[in-house]
Design a protein that fits this description.
Strand content: 25-35%
Distance between the termini: 21 Å
Order of helices and strands: EEHEHHEEHEHEEEEEEEEEHH
Shape: globular
Oligomer: single chain
Radius of gyration: 21 Å
Number of helices: 7
Number of strands: 15
């Protein structure tokens, strides 16, 4: 059974007012074209980034394969000067390498102290700040982070969700992005915030039979495109070319809803974490019953959750 496929809508010339009042409330992905992003889309070449970005050491993912898996950790962490990373990531074959001459590189920029500080390109790469303009489609006080990303050609990131809304700004290069609705979480074989299904185009349906029920929303991003990814929407990103992107995350829930120790924007809201802990305790209590009773009362609990917590306002 083939997965249902949908194209993410592309819209051009959208104003902040129209986005906020009419598009944002729908809570669905959108590709926005024609947004003023500054000079970055033309200036951020390999040579320019190497010169202006400097020799600051950055922590990177290095993988011998194109499909990166955060669950099995099929990559290693290494450090490189920023200018060297840019040059290597733009190459197909490497004269200098850590694992193999065709290894892949991925940078997800971090705060100065990742345990305390969020990523913000304006702070970590101040000489690049003047080149890029963030879409002003949310209030400044809602801003959470701006994450600088660099990917080798062919690199594919694992399917995952974030707990905050974000704009993926494709500055240079091309990406293919596949998204899945939060309502399809039950088909994605989750481990925490990540899906176990790596090969989303040719999945092993003997191992992951429910994955065939998941709906795929797809888009291609070119330089200058901005993809709106609502919180909780799963996304899988394939870099079709060497490219640079910036994710801008913002808080759309009250600040007290978020985990104060979260510097990556991917820890579940505190209420959700508390509910999960309570559920774990309930399941341990159910385990005291014989299998027949445990099964019966677990099914009743599921029905109760569906009745009280499932929304009837979503597809």
């Amino acid at each position: 059974m083939a997965l249902q496929r949908f194209s993410v809508p592309r819209l051009e010339g959208i104003s902040q007012e129209h986005f906020t009042q009419h598009l944002y409330p729908q809570r669905k992905p959108l590709v926005l074209e024609g947004i003023d992003l500054g000079a970055c889309t033309s200036k951020w070449t390999v040579d320019y980034l190497s010169q202006v970005g400097g020799k600051k050491e950055v922590k990177i993912h290095v993988a011998a394969v194109a499909q990166m898996d955060f669950i099995s950790k099929n990559f290693v962490y290494r450090t490189l000067p920023f200018d060297k990373l840019v040059q290597r990531a733009a190459e197909e074959k490497h004269k200098e390498f850590f694992i193999s001459e065709d290894e892949k590189y991925y940078l997800r920029s971090l705060g100065e102290d990742p345990r305390k500080d969020v990523a913000d390109i304006r702070k970590q790469f101040p000489l690049l700040e003047g080149d890029i303009k963030f879409p002003k489609f949310f209030k400044e006080e809602q801003f959470f982070s701006s994450v600088f990303r660099i990917s080798s050609p062919g690199l594919q990131l694992w399917t995952h969700y974030d707990v905050m809304d974000n704009f993926l700004i494709q500055v240079t290069g091309k990406k293919r992005v596949v998204l899945f609705s939060p309502r399809d979480a039950q088909y994605l074989y989750l481990s925490g915030t990540k899906s176990e299904v790596l090969n989303i185009d040719n999945p092993d349906l003997a191992k992951y039979p429910l994955f065939s029920k998941a709906r795929k929303y797809e888009c291609s991003l070119k330089a200058g495109d901005v993809l709106f990814i609502p919180a909780l929407w799963f996304h899988n990103v394939i870099s079709e070319e060497f490219g640079v992107g910036v994710n801008v995350f913002w808080k759309h829930l009250p600040s007290e809803c978020y985990d104060k120790t979260d510097t990556y924007g991917n820890k579940d809201p505190t209420a959700a974490s508390r509910a999960a802990q309570i559920l774990d305790r309930a399941l341990k209590t159910l385990a005291e019953l014989p299998e027949e009773y445990r099964d019966f009362y677990a099914r009743r609990m599921v029905l109760h959750i569906q009745d009280k917590a499932y929304s009837k306002n979503f597809e």
